[in-house]
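Reading is simple: the token line describes the chain's fold. The lines below illustrate.

. . .
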Amino acid sequence: MVEILRPTAIGRLEELGVNQDSSGASIGVSIDPQPQFEEVNTIQRTKRLLPYNHRVMLAASVYLEYIQGQRGLPPQPSYFKTDPYLMRQTYKLALGTFHYIQVIEDLLLDTYFYSSYVQFRQCQSLVAVMLYNLKLLGFKAPRAYQCEFGETVREVQEVHEALLRFKTKFHAAFARCRIKCNAYQEDQLMSNDIRIRYKSCVSTPRHVRVNSLRRNKDQVIMTLENRGYTKIAPLEPWTPFSFYCDPLLEQLLVFSPDSKDDLTNFALVHDGSLLLQDKSTVVAASILHNMISPNGPSSNDDVIVTDIGTGNAACYLAALQSKEGSVLAFGPAPDATEKLLTKSDTLNASNVHIVNEPFLQSSCKDKIFKGVRGILCNPPSSLSGVVDIVELVVEEGEKILPAVAKGPCDTASLPRYVTTQYLTLKHALSFPKVSCVVFFTRSIHPQECEHLVRKVCDELSESSDDSPFRLVPVDSAVRESVLTNDSFYHPLVNMKNIPTDISSKCLRVMPTAELGGFFVATFQRMAVKSSTILERALEKGTLGGDPSKGSSSAKKHKKNKKAAKKLKGDSAMDPTTASMIKVRGKSRKSAKRK
């Protein structure tokens, strides 16, 4: 029997310890008690320089080791809860160092840094992060060495002083490296896909969804305007701290890029009235809801989310569904179940029920799924369509750092993702009561998108099911509102072998500066044909007579089939023998009548 965890009124969590694996590396995220946020009536408009902070450097070096696979998931620093600016700078330093790691290692070798400072071989990740930060400063000493938390870490101080002694050598070695690589600009030292991603995320806006289960849209807009935000039209240029309402999705607001730090620490975000959510998940959930209830604002049917993740998609479906309809979300991580229950309680999503097992281990014939009519199939993907990976990490947590840090063109892990996606989609299509399935992935690789759907469609066409699923076109209104042609990612994707009969029905959005890339395919169950129903009724004898013996018409139908098969087999006989068999059959029938 499937174990379902239902949301209850859970108080603030006490601080949890950090688990450790067999190697002693920290795993799991430590959850601090929810901090008290003071309501700020005005926007914090002060510009802050790139921090040279002891805790930021240490945290970035630990996350760098996690990205490189040298340790497990570290505990979340305490300052993440109170300073979103330092949180984003920590992620940027870790990711930037990883993308320049080969150049940084060459600089250290070229200058013989470790020959002069052998003791720093034990903290190479910290040296790499601080050297990358020194490169961002133009190999110049920062004007003010700040330590905002009132404490100085001796190890960081020693590395800092050693790097400053070598700053001239580093600068010269970096110039030689650019000449060797023929890099006119610094970003040409990175791979092409990483450089394109950095170019696209310079002016990426922040998408925020209004949680209608707590406040309506007008109340939220009034609060934002009182705080200092300016509402503009969708096509107007950005002004400082401005936003507009998405023309397609009613509950989605789009904010200017300079408002990201202020929104993260906004009281409406922490009380569940606003939710930092990528637009792609909102689009996929809206498509599923429109397929289930095309003529009504809400539905009483149950829906399934195959991978709950952060719970954003499940909570949005809960807002679209009526209170009678449930959202069954599968596959939470063991250390994230309580956090997800608390989040659903904060968002007032009382009809979200967490199924504490993977979706592939569920039975489609279980009684709890008898009311399910739609499935949002969102298995794990390569996340190659994500543009602003820092915002994605802020939204979904540090666990996805290794996946998003490798770049859009990394294909080493594609076979594993494709296998999981194929099995998940096939299992979703096996539920007997489900009428529609929406396959959603934030990837630009055809192996995870069109090719996978092509394989599933070929198997569906060979199925003997009387009412099979078929691939249907995505809503044209959704397609026209999100499709763009100004993407930098087109050279990275080989679109030659993509089947046109699949691509014409699916929705593929390439990443742009305004929206990340994603892929949506919609499957709908076809109605049973009347001829199929009649034949089944004839065979079961449900059109009249004794059901146990079958009706006389059913018996005649079977005899006619046998006679037709026999005549086909007698086609090799001579005409005289075949006519004798026919005459004998007629004489027997006439004798019975007499």
Summary: The radius of gyration is 31 Å. The chain is about 40% helix and 10% strand. The mean pLDDT is 79.
